[in-house]
């Protein structure tokens, strides 16, 4: 059962946390931050899938916080690069490089590849775990293409190069309100909310 003191958002990433809070606003259970706890350990993301990494983070952080934790893992898959950078999206082109450099390196790798062959998707997996066990994991994706240049001032990460043909804009050109309806994280959080409802119902029967 989820403790009544709430669910901890298992990320230190400010941008992710803001998106999660906006999309999950209105939930009856309060959302807590990792910053509410001291000496939170880093979780090594060594899984081969987004689901594995999300589950590992949720479980380890739930054991540490002694509360229910939701944790996500997300990234970009580019078909022309055999689905790279994938689970290594945050470490692509070096762990300490900024995303502008990562995007530039991605465009360099795709140089000369026509737009129709630059298909890609953002993926997001979200897990919910308690201190004793993993409760569930959901995953969603958002399909698009890799643009030939960086465009847009909103968003973060690979958003400036992720082109959505139905909007004729990159993810970084979409307003936050639109992004928070159609992004991989928004879709995964929608599934997470449904999973949470079922989990709570099953827990009281």
From TrEMBL:
Q: Which UniProt keywords apply?
A: Hydrolase, Magnesium, Metal-binding, Nucleotide metabolism, Nucleotide-binding
User: Which coenzymes or cofactors are required?
Assistant: Mg(2+)
Under which main EC class is this enzyme filed? hydrolase
Tell me which residues bind Mg(2+).
Answer: 73
UniProt keyword Magnesium, yes or no: yes
Keyword Transmembrane assigned to the entry: answer is no
Catalysed reactions, semicolon-separated: dITP + H2O = dIMP + diphosphate + H(+); ITP + H2O = IMP + diphosphate + H(+); XTP + H2O = XMP + diphosphate + H(+)
What's a Pfam family in this record? Ham1p_like
Any single Gene Ontology cellular-component annotation: cytosol
Catalytic residues per the record?
Answer: 73
E.C. numbers: 3.6.1.66
The biological processes this protein is annotated with in GO are: nucleotide metabolic process; purine nucleoside triphosphate catabolic process
Q: Which HAMAP family match?
A: Non_canon_purine_NTPase
How the protein assembles, per its UniProt entry? Homodimer.
What's the family? Belongs to the HAM1 NTPase family.
Quote the protein name from its UniProt record: dITP/XTP pyrophosphatase
């Amino acid at each position: 059962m989820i403790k009544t003191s709430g669910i901890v958002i298992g990320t230190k990433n400010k941008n992710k946390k803001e998106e999660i809070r906006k999309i999950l606003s209105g939930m009856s259970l309060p959302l807590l931050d990792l910053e509410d706890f001291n000496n939170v350990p880093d979780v090594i993301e060594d899984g081969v899938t987004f689901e594995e990494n999300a589950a590992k983070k949720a479980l380890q952080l739930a054991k540490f916080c002694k509360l229910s934790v939701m944790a996500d893992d997300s990234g970009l898959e580019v078909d022309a690069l055999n689905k790279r950078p994938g689970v290594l999206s945050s470490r692509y082109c070096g762990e300490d490089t900024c995303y502008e450099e990562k995007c530039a390196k991605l465009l360099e790798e795709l140089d000369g590849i026509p737009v129709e062959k630059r298909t890609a998707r953002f993926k997001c997996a979200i897990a919910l775990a308690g201190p004793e066990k993993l409760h569930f994991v959901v995953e969603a994706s958002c399909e698009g293409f890799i643009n030939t240049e960086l465009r847009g001032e909103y968003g973060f990460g690979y958003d400036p190069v992720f082109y959505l043909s139905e909007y004729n804009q990159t993810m970084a050109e979409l307003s936050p309100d639109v992004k928070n309806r159609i992004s991989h994280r928004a879709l995964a959080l929608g599934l997470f909310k449904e999973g949470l409802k079922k989990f709570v119902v099953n827990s009281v029967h």
